[in-house]
Amino acid sequence: MVAATEPTGGVLGRIRTELPTLPDALQRVAEQLLADPAEAALATIVDLAERSGTSTATITRFCRVFGFSGYAALRVAIATETGRAAQARWELDIGREIVPQDPLDRVLEIVASADTRAIQETVGRLDRESLERVVTALAGAKRVELFGIGSSGTVAAEMAFRLQRIGVVCWARAEVHTALTNAALLRPGDVAIGLSHGGRTHEIIEMLAEAGSHGATTVAVTSFPRSPLAEVADVVLTTAAHETTFRAEALAAVHSQLLVLDLIYVVLAQRTFERSSAAFEVTAEAVAGHRLPDEADDSRRAAGRRGRRRVANGRTRPAPKPEEA
Q: Where are the domains of the chain?
């Protein structure tokens, strides 16, 4: 389906990520674009069709699969992105193998480049209207369930902890039977969030589908917006990942998943400021006795009280600042 507005940000990353799922003819187009993006940005549609061994109709279909109205729009997006990459040198190390002879600084540069690019691409892919829908649903939810397995389960657990700190009744589930049992108890007004980089983890698909069958609002966090997980979700939030040696994409996706969930958490706290601030203060006090005191504790608490008084007087509403747990 043609998007109402042209997509922005991370088109090469999206093509790279979704290449294995494309039909053969579209894969050949993708491979040609990724082999030399700068050259592709200058090529005509006829040139690209000849180089990829396809047709102009296939090129047009490829553009529409990725949300572009036509080849001209895709070419502009690629040209813009390759220009940024050349300036920032982001693309230099992405996909480069880490070898035993690499010094520590080189390994750091490769990993940091991959993660930085993935986060930037995630920001570009993130649909703002979808994010607003998720935040609105969470603000009114009576109950929230998060489903994730493996590295995605770690992210789900972190998200559940953050939401609990601002008063959201939620749990993270990784065990299949427990997750399905609780998914079946969800009702309209509740929210279920499923995390899976590839969107093909059978258990997560089943959990989210079960929640949706009982009327809950379902959210998929995945790098593949046309994946089976996305198909059973009401809302899809798309992430990006760049793998490096020893880090498959599913592991590399953790940073992008955390970015999306952290953004949900912060915006939700902003939109429910009074409730979130009160819950955050109560939960902070509950665990305060389990931390060694430091000289800054009293000043932080005093600053927090002053901030809340400013809010009560109608001044700027600062977002609540997390304290160490």
A: 1-88, 128-270, 272-312
CB 18 within 8 A of CB 200: no
Over residues 248-270, the pLDDT tens digits come to 555 668 889 999 999 999 999 99
Q: Looking at residues 17-44, what average pLDDT do you find?
A: 90
Which residues does residue 192 pair with via DSSP β-bridges, in sequence order?
Answer: 145, 218
Q: Residue with structure tokens 């990724």?
A: 34
Contacts of 99 (CB under 8 A, 6+ apart): 245
Inter-residue contact 48 to 251 (CB < 8 Å) = no
217-222 sheet: strands from edge to edge: 170-173, 144-147, 191-195, 217-222, 235-238
- Count, residues in the chain: 325
Is the pLDDT assigned to residue 184 strictly greater than 70?
A: yes
Q: How far is CA 299 from CA 223, 243, 247, 264, 320, in A?
A: 42, 43, 42, 29, 15
Tokens of 133: 């829908």
More confident residue, 60 or 6: 60
Taking the model in full, what pTM does it have? 0.69
Fold of 1-88: Arc Repressor Mutant, subunit A (1.10.10)
CA dist 280 and 160 (Å) reads 14
Structure tokens at 297: 């504790």
Distance from the first to the final alpha carbon of the chain? 46
CATH class of the domain defined by 128-270: alpha beta
